[in-house]
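Chapter review: from sequence to fold.
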Amino acid sequence: MERPAAPAAHEAAEIRLTITSPEQMRELGRRLAKLLRAGDLVMLSGELGAGKTTLTRGLGEGLGVRGAVTSPTFVIARVHPSLGGGPPLVHVDAYRLAGGLDEMEDLDLDVSLPDSVIVVEWGEGKVEELADDRLQVVIHRAVGDTTDEVRHVTVTGLGERWAEAGLETLTG
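The token string follows.
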């Protein structure tokens, strides 16, 4: 009799969450920060106003970094050094960058990655080549004329790094 094959270590780990307020989005960021370490790449995607920067604020709080985490839209990238010996947070907004990794090279993210946690908003098709192991966070919200605060968040860990990283702890 054949045994079922064990899942490969590089298969994606995924969780889905429903978030109902900006404070819950920040709390998700704080919980996620407990799983992050230097060398991690986090890609955030979602519509304008979905909560990408709010999530990153929570990450900054959880990582204990210096400086207010705000959208880096016009400066493209901000570095927030750690206040407690942990990795710095590099927060990138790739919305205005049309080219792929070539245009991102000026930011030297590949140099920063081993020592930092890098969070890239709007990074799809632009930064995947930086790391085989990465965390993808997709935030869906109702679009149009709505005051609905509900967000559906899918967190997917790609690569061996995330196979046993404990993403299920984010649901608590």
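Two observations follow directly from the output. The two ends are 39 Å apart (CA to CA). Helices lie at 22-33, 52-63, 101-104, 109-112, 160-163.
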